[in-house]
Amino acid sequence: MHILFITSTRLGDAILSTGLLDTLLRRYPQADFTIACGPVAAGLFAHMPRRVRTIEMVKQPWDRHWLELWRQCSGTKWDLCVDLRGSVVSYFLRVGKRHVMRGGRRRGRRITHIGNLLDLDPAPLPVVWTSAAERAQAAEMLPGGPRWIALGPTANWDGKIWPAERFVAVFRALQEDDPSVRPVILYGPGEGERARAQAVLDQLPDALDTGGNLSVTQVAALLGRCTLFIGNDSGLMHLAAACGIPTLGLFGRSRASEYAPSGPWARVAMAPGPVGNAPMEGLAVAQVVTTARALLRDRWGRKR
């Protein structure tokens, strides 16, 4: 059985689709999978079971990337196609059954829309697949002893970024509660991401700087060893929630009603103001500290 799964170009949306993929893996244990996604998201699927191929869709003028996807897929008879991009490609392929999500922005949780495509209620939570080597590397980078708190101070645009000094203030408050905690600073590749993270790194000299050059699944393996993640609305936030660790997403210029982190221990702190257009500067340190403490207590209170 051959399944074609067309998912997002953006990392966060691709992460939200992994719960649906996990459902298909369990529903069709004999199937193999071809993933079509953007280059940024491709690494997410590196260790997915029964994945035979990932097709990286690089945007081209006049939507020629869709023609290229058709060209690469037209030689196969697909038993099932799941298309989260709302394209028409599957209608021009030999497909036994197709599920196509209509395009355009809709109200409500993105993860709910994804689950509705297969009539799944509740929607399946995201998952992440890492290798044994990556988990061993993470254990070397984050050895046992300290309780590691991951901070994600970057985002894909500056309006979504909480001020650096407030990340530092939150960590210091949590460190007063537990002097054994240490910070891990996570950010993506490129000089822009490094520049956004630098102010936090400068103020937390004892932090582990992950360098921005790790793969998505290497970062996931690191997150799996952390006690807590606090970060802006970003792919890293969704990745942390998919790892199942306590995750606190910070929202102001984006809508938590659509893109809140989805995980067993996921929470949000929202800046006051117009929904989806509230200045991040309005989000107070005290609010984030209170929410983080409650999340830690709910998750670890009986164990640590």
UniProtKB/TrEMBL annotation:
SUPFAM superfamilies noted in UniProt: UDP-Glycosyltransferase/glycogen phosphorylase
EC code(s) of this entry: 2.-.-.-
Cellular component GO terms, alphabetical: cytosol
Bilayer-crossing regions: none
Keyword check for Transferase: yes
Any single GO BP term: lipopolysaccharide core region biosynthetic process
Glycosyltransferase in keyword set: yes
Pfam families: Glyco_transf_9
Keywords of this entry: Glycosyltransferase, Transferase
One of the record's GO molecular function terms: ADP-heptose-lipopolysaccharide heptosyltransferase activity
InterPro entries associated with the record: Glyco_trans_9 (IPR002201), LPS_LOS_Heptosyltrfase (IPR051199)
Name listed for the protein in its UniProt record: Lipopolysaccharide core heptosyltransferase RfaQ
Naturally occurring in which organism (per UniProt): Komagataeibacter europaeus
